[in-house]
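DM from R.C. (forwarded with permission)

"hey, sorry to bug you on a friday — could you get me a structure for this? deadline for the figure draft is monday and I only need the backbone to look sensible"
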Amino acid sequence: MTPEQQATREFEAWYIALPIYPASGGPARGTITAALVVLERLQKNYDLSLDSHRAPGKSQIKGTGSTAVSRILSDFGENRPFLKEGGRTNRGVPRDISTMLLALQSAHLENLAAHERTRILEKLQAFLVDKVRDFHNRQRLKLTYDPRKSTWYSINDLLNLAREVGKEGPVAQYLVGAKLQLRFPNMEISNESFSTADDQLGRYGDFHINDTVFHVTVSPMTGVYEKCKQNLANGLRVFLLVPEKVRQAAKQNAEAVAPEKITVEAIESFVAQNIDELSGFSHKQLIDGFRRLLETYNARVDRAENDKSFLVEIPRNLR
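My reply, with the result:
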């Protein structure tokens, strides 16, 4: 067995033996982030002594702040927030890292050339990053629904929740798509993966109904206004849908680009008003209407995305 095979086998056995936590559906997130940081450090200094990786006080692993962890994950193409506190919250992390270092000892990677050892350590990091992706793909957005709130604020709550976990963009797009599908049940409302660029598909915008184009963005930059101008030049009507928190700024920019020609509306208002209307402004029917919005949203996400973490867990009081 080669050192690489030995290291891979022992490392995977270490991972499988870690305690499972119900909150994450797998090993503690603090352990995963600490392991990523220690593997990074080992690429520069292959020291398998646990004390070399302890922070002062010896109860934590040094260097496991969120910035360092985010950088490592980003190097592997994973940019979703994983754990704000890095590995600092779990007192069992040093124990888990100790067993990881013992697992690596059996592979004798110290006998390899530095570049070869680094390649193997990066492979072990990639293994952990795949587990991080699995975690994200299991985690649905957990919305709390308060029937006393207006529909506008319920939509706002969902966007705020999505923003906290780095998913506001896709959630906004799928919410608008769900609203349009409910409003126009006999029309085909396009449903593309969030990561698919408009020009890849030859689209005018995120949605196109009759002679109107809808652009959905949570952070309107120069590019979206250029698309709006091009839409107008092509004889189309344009809606720019943004979160309420940036609506006023987006409206000012739109007026500077094409005065009185671009309709800028808050996503919260655009979606909520339609749900209120379809529910006949009845409180009892509104609960059913909001559930249908979330169910339609989930169905669209499920059809278009491999990443199921964009799905919303239907609140118990809506089921």
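R.C.: lifesaver. DSSP finds twelve helices and six strands in the chain.
me: no worries. Confidence is low (pLDDT under 50) at residues 85-89.
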